[in-house]
Amino acid sequence: MVFVSPLPQAAGYAVVLGLGLTFALFMNSVAWIQSKFSQYSPSSASEFSAASRSLKTGLVVAGIISSWTWSLTLLQSTTQSYLLGVSGGYWYAVGGVIPIAIFSVIASKIKINANRATTFPEIAYIRFGTAGHLAFLWCGLVCNATVSACNLIGGASVVTALTGMNQYASLFLIPIGVAFYVAVGGLRATFICDATHTFVLLLILIGFGFVIFESSNIVGSPAKLYDLLVTAANTWPVQGNYNGSYLTFRSQQGAISAVLFINNGFGLVTCDQGYWSRAIASNPTSTARAYFLGGIAWFAVPFACGTMLGLTARGLATLPDFPVLSEFDVGAGLVGVRVVTYLMGTAGSILMLLLIFLSLTSALSAELIATSTLLSYDVYQHYFNPNATSHQIVTASRYFVAFWAIFSAALASVFYAVGIVSTSPWLFYFLGVATSSGVFPIALTFLWKDLTKAGAVVGSLGGMAIALIVWFTTAKAYMGAITLATLSNLWVSFAGSATATIAGGVLSVGLSLWRPANFDWDKTKMMIGVKEEGAARQPPPASVSSVLLNGGEKDNEKDCAADAALEIASSAQDAATVTVDVLDIPALTRTFKKYTILFAILATIICFVIPAPLGGAPYIFSPKFFEAYVGVMFVSHGSASSRNGMTEFTLMGLAIFCFLPRRHLTNY
């Protein structure tokens, strides 16, 4: 059966332009109300780029879920389960959770050692000078450019498939609409939209799950889907899976995918300014908690997409009237689109269009504000206008938001023109190869005082160069040619991505151990910030320096250093001011240790305790075990609907979980 676009082109333009305009008007109103009736104004550089460093846990969690829920997240996790079975979506989810959860540990150190930073390259400049600053800036821009294009290509492909809308039109119109509300409201605007988008997105996914496993006459239960997957394994056995089954964790490709996804996730999170912006924007008391909860909550999204849409697509493929999924369709991430359209008709197509649009605009808004922050602070202010005022930086940021919207659309169009859309894993794998070399150098910049300039620069850039060489040579040696298809091979990509992380780590740590830097963290704790117009520079309380530097214990030498820094800054012709924060350093240190332990526990559970018994034994899910597996998906997805976990949506998930076996157990 040939798939025909179920919606008219007008529907595509209505969603892209109509919803884009609606969100822009909504955020304009919010920005006006915020400026009129609160102490926060989007015209302030600190508010525009860092939300005045005042965001609470709930908004940050929503922002993390939303910014990590790319259109690629929904599409690729579905594709992985379609190709590999139950392990595909699970390992994709684990690959995203681990980097986010460990960022809760790094976030604590950001607040301790560099609370006044706005971007991560700023700290590189203080520690390593211009060479380190440019190296980290390059890593950040490469990451943001590829992520932006990746999101646009995946989202625009779905819009085109569902509505027949011109691909290039969607590639340009979507970012323009997002740029409108980001340029007006800044980082806080993206958080508010993230919260709205995430809520609707999770509701849509819950609706899909209920239709697939409860109300559908075609599937209607885990038991029926189980039968379809058994038939699919007999027709298209999975190479490397135990008995070719889609219902087993014993999978060679699944195991290598797990390592690849986790490794790529580390590179993306570390090099993407969007995650640093969220850590910087959050209240010091809630930063680590927000990232840890955000990571756990996000897990449910790809896990649910893979289980609901990916496995269902593979099962439905055994039915004669289900649309044939070509290699192009699978590569473009259209597996889930075919499922909801087949099961739900026009309503499903509309919901899928809305789902992808919300995920795309949320993720893209994070990239726009993150990149504009990099360009305004680390390019405009740093190299062209060192004495830039708050107003000038905000103005520059808004121009850069518009610039990046156009640039990312153009880059995505180039990728689409050369055929990358049909091999969408290439972009994801390229991200890992290009960014993973920055994991150790960038993270250690905030964690390790002995990291040197040579280690940071050679580790990040040298590791990237080595990884690209290994990626290309492995494709040539292993696959016989260097093409988009061969570079998208799982083993080839694993070689390049793993090389990036290992080379970056070995070079950065090795060169630093040779001649340790012994950096003085006081230099980053007393950073010079942009002076807000009309803000009086008030001297900090006498006890502030000691509270900042050692948690309240008097240290005369460090106090003198802080006073000297303040005195120097005050003579800088009012171009900037030093902001010294009253921070509870002992409490932040305890938080760092607490979330280090929690991360270790979480990583052990989801990487070993759960999958090791399932994958180590030659086991294929039984019907009842598969029902329980689906129930866990509903519970985890319900928990993701709130920052604190057990809510009405969790109860909904539990109710569905308990209801399904009672109704459908008679199938066996």
TrEMBL record:
Annotated compartments: Membrane
Keyword Magnesium applies: no
Designated name of the protein: Urea transporter
Record's bilayer topology term: Multi-pass membrane protein
TM stretches of this protein: 12-33, 54-70, 90-107, 135-162, 168-187, 199-219, 290-312, 350-377, 398-420, 426-447, 454-474, 494-514, 597-621, 641-660
Superkingdom to which the source organism belongs: Eukaryota
InterPro entries documented for this protein: DUR, Na/Glc_symporter_sf, Na/solute_symporter
Pfam families attached to this UniProt entry: SSF
Organism taxonomic ancestry: Eukaryota, Fungi, Dikarya, Basidiomycota, Agaricomycotina
Keywords from the UniProt entry: Membrane, Transmembrane, Transmembrane helix
Family in the record: Belongs to the sodium:solute symporter (SSF) (TC 2.A.21) family.
Predominant cellular place of this UniProt entry's protein: membrane
PANTHER family referenced in this protein's UniProt entry, alphabetically: PTHR46154, SOLUTE SYMPORTER FAMILY TRANSPORTER (AFU_ORTHOLOGUE AFUA_6G03200)
GO molecular function (one): urea transmembrane transporter activity
GO cellular component terms attached to this protein's record: plasma membrane
